[in-house]
Amino acid sequence: MNRTQTNQTGKMQSELDPTAIDRILASEEELVPTSGFLASVMERVREEATAPPPIPFPWKRAIPGITLLTGTLGWGAFALVRHGLPAASELSLTPPHLTAAFDQSLEQAAWVALALGVSLFSWLLSKRLAGRSGLL
Amino acid sequence: MSYPAERHELAAASHNPPEKTAQADPDLADIARVLAGDVQAFEGIVRRWQGPLINMAWRYCRDRGRAEELAQEAFLRAWRGLAQWRRESSFSTWLFALAANVFRSDLRRFPAVDLPLEAAPEPSAAALQHHALAAQLNAESVRRAVLALPRRYREPVVLFYFHEMDVAAAARTMRLPEGTVKARLSRARALLRKRFPHLEAQHEEMEFGALNTGKEA
User: Fold this and answer.
1) Does B139 sit within 8 Å of A41, measured CB to CB?
2) A20 near B145, Cβ under 8 Å?
3) pTM greater than 0.80
4) Which of A7, A20, A41 is the closest to B199 by Cβ?
5) Which of A12, A58, B45, B159 has a 20 to 30 Å separation from B150 between CA atoms?
6) Is residue B3 located within the same domain as residue B105?
7) Which of B216, B117, B198, B124 shows the shortest CA–CA distance to B157?
8) How far B68 CA lies from chain A's nearest CA (Å)?
9) Given CB atoms, is B104 within the 8 Å cutoff of chain A?
């Protein structure tokens, strides 16, 4: 079906005068779907319909872990603010010397960061393994 | 492509109570059946909308195989999200907006044309004896040039002509205000005119030539 003859009147906006470009772009041959298209869509729909529902996120099991992680993060932030900031302000007053307090808090922060990194890595690894096995 | 089904649906939705609308509108009836668990009822929806969605996808990518793949993906998304259709807009508006979203994100990952507008081929000058062929080639050059437009201008052009030059329908599909669509459309048309400055003159010349040939015959 050539759509050159399609109704252009009435809908054309006054500020959009028809030009050669309009005539070309408005006259597009209409594609007819291939014979297998409908069947192929319905096959995929049926596949989806019969597929088992996705496993819900195990909130009950995850809540203790999330609580622990939040607590650790909170504690880490608190420790950093409590020890790190005074040490840092001291450091700014005496730039060439690192105080013992700052050294200690920096070490603690590094351990916390390491622990968080290991947790994140194990979480990502477990997620990836679960994804590969089709659990997720 | 503003399909009659869309207009009928809008008219039906505004004049009939919900139960009558469901009876009169085959889409609404099929959706109700699908939501009640009848998977087969979705076939009716695909049957009615496969043409429009494939043609819409074709205008986005100009690749027949890809157009069908994109349309299939759009139908699957529609299947998954059917329960989320709030009935605030007509089914066709929802379906076209969803499909536009699918096409847009897919083409963002794998663009259909990756050359700038300046590099789009110039239409050839029409030799008098080959008017029809030259016209076809020119038309194809312009259609391909649309895909080379910057992204923000490309989609309004695609949807405006798909909806038979209906700015409101294009705006609904893009979920943008009509004014924004009009502004982008105007800019896109200016870019195309700048890219093909001789097209208008050539087109008129060819029309005049064809008219004279007709008279002589």
Assistant:
1) no
2) no
3) no
4) A20
5) A12
6) yes
7) B117
8) 7
9) no
Inter-chain touch A16–B79, beta carbons under 8 Å: no
Query: Do B34 and B70 fall within a single domain?
Result: yes
Residues B142 and B94 in one domain: no
Tens of pLDDT, residues B6-46: 443 443 343 344 444 555 688 899 999 999 989 999 999 99
Task: Quote helix, strand, coil % in chain B, to nearest 5.
Answer: 80, 0, 20
- In the block, tokens 């298209």 appear at A37
* In a shared domain, residues A22 and A72: no
The verdict on a CB contact (< 8 Å) between A33 and B51 is: yes
Does B137 share its domain with B185? Answer: yes
Q: State how far residue B86 is from chain A, nearest Cα, in angstroms.
A: 21
Whether residues B132 and B195 share a domain: the answer is: yes
Contacts with B58 from chain A: Cβ below 8 Å: 31
Same domain, B105 and B121: no
The complex scores an ipTM of 0.72
From the number of C-beta atoms within 10 Å of its C-beta (0-12, 13-18, 19+), residue A20 rates as buried
